[in-house]
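Customer escalation, tier 2.

The customer says the design service returned an amino acid string that "doesn't look like it belongs to this structure." They asked us to rerun it and document both sides in this ticket. The original C-alpha cells are below, unchanged.
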C-alpha cells in the first residue's frame, strides 16, 4: 500500500464525510456527488482519513498540496542539526608540545560545533597503567571546559581509553544582545 492518499476516482467507498476547500464541513455525501462537487469547483477530492467511518475526503488542489508539503519537508531537512564526531588519538606518554597541538585541534573542532572523540591508545606495558590515560583525559577536559563538556566519561575499551566531549550550546543572537545590554 502506498503512502500517497487516494484521490478522485481512486476513492472506492460508497460515501465520504466531505470537507470543503476552506475547512468547512459539507457533511456525509455519496462519492458520486462529492466527485461532481470537486469537478465543478475545479479541485481534487483527496482522502485525508481513510480509516474513519465514513472516510474523510477534502476538496483541494492536490498538485499544490504535494508541492507545499515537499517544500516543508525540504526546509525541515535543511534546518536539521548535523552532528559530526571528530576523533583525536593520543598516547599516554605525550610530549607537552604535541599535547598542546592536539588540544588546539580539539578546541577548533568544539568551536566549529562538532563533538570530539578522544582516544588514548595504550601499547605494551602502558596497558598496566590506565590511570595515566585517565589523568590525561581529565587534564584535556579541564583545559577545554569553557568550550565543551564531557559527554561520556573516560572508559577503557581493550587497548584504548575513550572519552567524548560535546560543544556547549551556542547562544542565540538575541541572547548575546540581551547580555551585552545588561
Amino acid at each position: 500500500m502506498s503512502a500517497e492518499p487516494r484521490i478522485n476516482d481512486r476513492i472506492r467507498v460508497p460515501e465520504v464525510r466531505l470537507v470543503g476547500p476552506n475547512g468547512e464541513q459539507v457533511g456525509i455525501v455519496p462519492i458520486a456527488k462529492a466527485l461532481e462537487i470537486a469537478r465543478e469547483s475545479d479541485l481534487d477530492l483527496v482522502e485525508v482519513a481513510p480509516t474513519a467511518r465514513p472516510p474523510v475526503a477534502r476538496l483541494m488542489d492536490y498538485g499544490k498540496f504535494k508541492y507545499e508539503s515537499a517544500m516543508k519537508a525540504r526546509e525541515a531537512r535543511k534546518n536539521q542539526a548535523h552532528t559530526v564526531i571528530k576523533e583525536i588519538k593520543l598516547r599516554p606518554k605525550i610530549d607537552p608540545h604535541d599535547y598542546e597541538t592536539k588540544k588546539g585541534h580539539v578546541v577548533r573542532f568544539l568551536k566549529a560545533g562538532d563533538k570530539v572523540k578522544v582516544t588514548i591508545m595504550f601499547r605494551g606495558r602502558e596497558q598496566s597503567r590506565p590511570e595515566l590515560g585517565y589523568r590525561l583525559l581529565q587534564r584535556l577536559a579541564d583545559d577545554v571546559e569553557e568550550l565543551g563538556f564531557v559527554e561520556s566519561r573516560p572508559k577503557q575499551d581493550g587497548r584504548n581509553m575513550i572519552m567524548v566531549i560535546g560543544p556547549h550550546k551556542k547562544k542565540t543572537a538575541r541572547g548575546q544582545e540581551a547580555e551585552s545590554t545588561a
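Tier 2 assessment: The sequence is consistent with the input. The mean pLDDT is 85. The chain has two domains: 6-72, 83-165. Sent an explanation to the customer and offered a walkthrough call.
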